[in-house]
Amino acid sequence: MRSGVFRTYPGHRSTRLYDATTRAWFKRAKRDPTKTVISNAYMDSAGVGKIITISQAVFEGLPVISQEECVRKSEYGPWPGGCECKGDNECISRRCYMSGAAKFANDLHPRCATERVEAVTSLDMLYNDFYHQTVQIMESTDDGKKDYKKRGCGRAYKCPDNNWGCQTRCYLFDNEGYILTDDDFVSANDLDEKKYKEVSLGKKEGEIMKELVYKYGLFVRKEYVDFQGTCTITPYTPKVTLSGIPMIPEEQDDYYKFKGPIPAFSNSYGCIQDVVHYEADNSKLKETGMLTGNISGPCMSGFYYVTALPKTNLFVLVIENWKRNSSDKIFNFNCKITQSLVTSGAFRIINGTCSAREDESNSRPQLCPLLKNESLVNVTCDYNASNKLAPRWWELSWCLFYLLLMSAPGLGFRSSTRGLVSNTT
Q1: What three-state secondary structure class fits 309?
Q2: 155: closest CA among 329, 322, 30, 10?
Q3: Contact 1, 140 (CB under 8 A)
Q4: What are the pLDDT digits (tens) for 325-356?
Q5: Is the peptide bond before 33 cis (omega within 30 degrees of 0)?
Q6: Does the global pTM surpass 0.85?
Q7: What distance in Å separates the CA atoms of residue 222 and residue 215, rounded to the nearest whole number?
């Protein structure tokens, strides 16, 4: 990891710009080395299609250390790498396992892993294969009822009120609230990454995500301002084909060699964005390791179960009697608002931040033109004052009276409004 060496099997030449240390699966495994990390679905850099990556940190080799020395360092733990342990909580690295090294061949005790991570190993898997195998594992087991298979993931059945329209929905989502398994991801076009990459649970099941955030505290909202964000001029549209995009190193070499001048137009530009994301707090799970709830909101209704998968970054969500709630309007605004409250993403700040708000005081000198006849009209001189846009009633009365006097032909006044000044900006 520190040397930057990247090895693959089967061996192949990587593209020029590929850097494994910048990939999401690498960063997550490095950030949480004691767990097996499963990534979201994303487009493979080589153009294979939708894939997921299973990654695991590789620790430095265990040192040969006696138990007496471990006790001298810490009598009750947690202990450093190489010490005997019975569970992850007894280790500084939070990782207790049986070593397969030759020097520990006759050792029957698990030992603590070292704190130093040397590398990250990973396995790529086609998303459709991962999805179907996961759904098969999550299939209902026989509970003595004849219709147990009818209530499996994705199956429709009668609701408790004996009407059709209910089904069981199953999700895998990670510790940042992004969904891994969903029917829509399978049917989504591989080139349309926004349909399956980093799709928030709040976007699909807003009511449940709302309870996990604000009722149980399983997810903690994190927010920061990105002053180096990227926005686009035209709306997002998925790619139609990969034709013209270099996929193999040789094609990329030719692309840089013969690409010609850089076009003048660029669809992306720098902007300030408000970035919102969520982080899971596993300590909020109850003693049973499961959260349950009954939902009846503007989007859906049903009874749900949430639990964590041990030693991974994943959670399981099962919703029984899931039913979509219909709205009497063409567009369900309440559902859209509920989903947007707990959705991750980067949102453009159009009018700047609060710290960039202009001061109400005006430093420029307030110079008003002189009135032609100040004895007739007394107009207050105000500039750039938002709280004084509406003129007072007596000022309007004087203005109207002055106009009548100036425009009345029988009184011998010249028809002129030059010199009349109002207090509106």
Answers
A1: coil
A2: 322
A3: no
A4: 876 666 788 888 888 889 998 888 776 544 33
A5: no
A6: no
A7: 16
